[in-house]
Specification:
166 residues, alpha+beta, 4-stranded antiparallel sheet, 3-stranded antiparallel sheet, globular
């Protein structure tokens, strides 16, 4: 059953996760030798980001799975209006929604929560190589460790408060 409280809780968590991820994305781009060479920091980070979210959200009571789409295999992925783009995102069971923290690379808002049947998303299969899948998992584990080292949701929200804030 979808409740406003549950959606509000999910959105609060996702906004904090997005703020947590942005410096990591910047480092990933710098490591690749392309700082600032992309339209958004989230560009090209959907697999690692979604893998992290898939593992993190259940800790906060949200059952999840990763979803994939590649226009190489079918008309699937994310539809921009100009065609399908390869993409990864997370599907949450309750509430039944798609959560996407990297859709801003397609001109969307930074934290996108839409019904699970949103026509911009169409599932296919994970077309990544075994090597890249292992890399996604490794990065997701590192992110999870950093998330917990920083105190998780509560610690990160406290850290974002202005001096003297509660």
């Amino acid at each position: 059953m979808i409740t406003n409280d549950r959606l509000t809780e999910l959105e609060r968590l996702l906004r904090t996760v997005r703020v947590f991820l942005e410096p990591h994305w910047k480092l990933w781009w710098e490591h690749r030798g392309q700082p600032g060479g992309q339209k958004t920091l989230s560009e090209g980070t959907c697999g690692r980001t979604s893998c992290f979210l898939k593992d993190l959200l259940p800790e906060y009571g949200f059952a999840t799975r990763m979803a994939f789409g590649s226009p190489v295999e079918c008309d699937c992925g994310y539809h921009t209006g100009k065609g399908w783009k390869g993409h990864c995102w997370v599907v949450v069971d309750d509430p039944s929604v798609i959560v996407d923290l990297t859709a801003d690379q397609f001109g969307e808002v930074p934290v996108l929560i839409v019904p699970a049947d949103d026509p911009r998303y169409a599932e296919g299969h994970d077309m990544a190589s075994d090597e890249w899948r292992a890399e996604r998992q490794r990065v997701a584990r590192e992110l999870q460790e950093d998330w917990h080292r920083r105190g998780g949701l509560e610690g990160l929200e406290r850290a974002a408060l202005p001096v003297g804030g509660r």
